[in-house]
Design goal:
By secondary structure, this protein is of the alpha/beta class. It folds into three domains: about 90 residues, Winged helix-like DNA-binding domain superfamily/Winged helix DNA-binding domain (Arc Repressor Mutant, subunit A); about 100 residues, D-Maltodextrin-Binding Protein, domain 2; about 110 residues, D-Maltodextrin-Binding Protein, domain 2 (3-Layer(aba) Sandwich), CATH 3.40.190. The protein has nine helices and 15 strands. The strands form four sheets. Strands 7, 8, 11, 12, 13 and 14 form a six-stranded mixed beta sheet that branches. The chain has a five-stranded mixed beta sheet with strand order 4-3-5-15-6, with helices on one face. A two-stranded antiparallel ribbon has the order 1-2. Helix 2 packs across helix 3.
Length: about 300
C-alpha cells in the first residue's frame, strides 16, 4: 500500500510538470528513477498512463482520468505535511504538565506568566497532583517532581537548587506550648500532617542527625492533602507542621511562622522538570525547557 502511494505521488508530479526530469529534480532523484517508478505503476495497473517521446511527456486518457481522481488527495496530503512541519519550528499547541503541589517556584505566578506571554500559541494544561504515575501513559508532555522520585530513564532539568523540609509553628503556639528540642519530642506536641490522597497513610516527617537519616511517625490531630490548609492552621496556632521550606518562606519572613529543629533538616536534590526523551523534542516543550534554563523569573 505504501509503495502504491509513493508511485501515485511520483505520477502526480509527472502529470503536473509533464517532465520526468523536472519531477526528478523536485523529488531529488534521477530522471531514470522517475521513469522506472511510472513503469512499475503502469505494470501494476496493467494500462499505459504516460506517453513518452524524446521531447515531451503527456498523459493517456487513462492517465488523465487517474490524475483527475488522485490530484485532490495528493494536494491534500502535501498540505497536511506542510502544516505538520510547522509544528516542528513553532512553539504551539496544548502542553500538558503534571506538577507536584509543593513545587512552589515552578507554580509561581512570575514563571508561568512569563512563559505564556513569551509563547502565546501554547495552551498550558496543568494538573497539580502528588500522585505518582507514568506521565507518558497518561498523556502528559512532562512533569515536575522532586529529583529523588523521578525514574532514571527520564530527562530531568533542575528548576532550582537544593531544597529542604522544615518544621514550623506560629509564635503563638511556641509561646503557649514551647518547642521541641529534638524530633522525637514531636510526639508530645499537636501536629498538622499531610498525605497525598485519602487512602494513603500520613507522611512521615524526615530528619537527619550525625549524617544519618531517620523519620518520625507523628500522630497528627489534623491531616490533609492541602498544603495551603496546613499553613493556615499553623499560622492560626493549631500546631506544628512539616513541609517544603519554599512553601513556608513568605510566612517566616512576615513573622507568621517560625522554623524549628533546623539543625535536623538537611538539604536534598530539589525539583526537576522531567520528560521521556530529547529526540525530536516538540517545540512547545523545548520552549518550556529553554524558559526554565534562562531563569529570568527566579528571585
Amino acid at each position: 500500500m505504501l509503495s502504491d502511494l509513493n508511485m501515485l505521488s511520483v505520477f502526480a508530479l509527472v502529470a503536473e510538470e509533464r517532465s520526468f526530469r523536472v519531477a526528478g529534480e523536485r523529488l531529488g532523484v534521477s530522471r531514470s528513477a522517475v521513469s522506472q517508478t511510472i513503469r512499475r505503476l503502469e505494470e501494476s495497473l496493467g494500462i499505459a498512463l504516460v506517453r513518452r517521446t524524446t521531447r515531451s511527456v503527456s498523459l493517456t486518457e487513462a492517465g488523465e482520468q487517474l490524475y483527475e481522481d488522485v490530484a485532490p488527495a495528493i494536494s491534500g496530503m502535501r498540505l497536511a505535511l506542510r502544516q505538520t512541519e510547522q509544528w516542528r519550528d513553532r512553539p504551539r499547541g496544548q502542553l500538558r504538565l503534571a506538577v507536584s503541589s509543593i513545587a512552589e517556584r515552578f507554580l509561581s505566578g512570575p514563571f508561568l506568566a512569563g512563559f505564556t506571554e513569551a509563547n502565546p500559541e501554547i495552551e498550558l494544561d496543568i494538573t497539580v497532583t502528588d500522585d505518582e504515575f507514568d506521565i507518558v501513559a497518561e498523556g502528559y508532555d512532562a512533569g515536575v517532581r522532586l529529583g529523588e522520585v523521578i525514574e532514571q530513564d527520564m530527562i530531568a532539568v533542575a528548576i532550582a537548587g537544593d531544597e529542604r523540609q522544615l518544621t514550623v509553628c506560629s509564635p503563638a503556639y511556641r509561646d503557649r506550648f514551647g518547642i521541641p528540642r529534638h524530633p522525637r519530642d514531636l510526639a508530645g506536641h499537636r501536629c498538622i500532617g499531610w498525605r497525598p490522597s485519602p487512602k494513603a497513610v500520613p507522611y512521615r516527617w524526615e530528619f537527619a542527625e550525625a549524617g544519618k537519616d531517620f523519620s518520625v511517625a507523628v500522630s497528627p490531630e489534623v491531616t490533609t492533602n492541602d498544603m495551603a490548609l496546613m499553613i493556615k492552621l499553623a499560622v492560626a496556632g493549631a500546631g506544628i507542621t512539616f513541609g517544603m521550606e519554599e512553601s513556608f518562606r513568605p510566612f517566616i519572613e512576615r513573622g507568621e511562622l517560625v522554623a524549628l529543629l533546623e539543625e535536623y533538616c538537611p538539604r536534598f536534590a530539589g525539583f526537576y522538570l522531567y520528560y521521556p526523551s530529547r529526540r525530536n523534542l516538540a517545540p512547545k516543550l523545548r520552549a518550556l525547557v529553554e524558559h526554565l534554563k534562562r531563569g529570568e523569573w527566579r528571585p
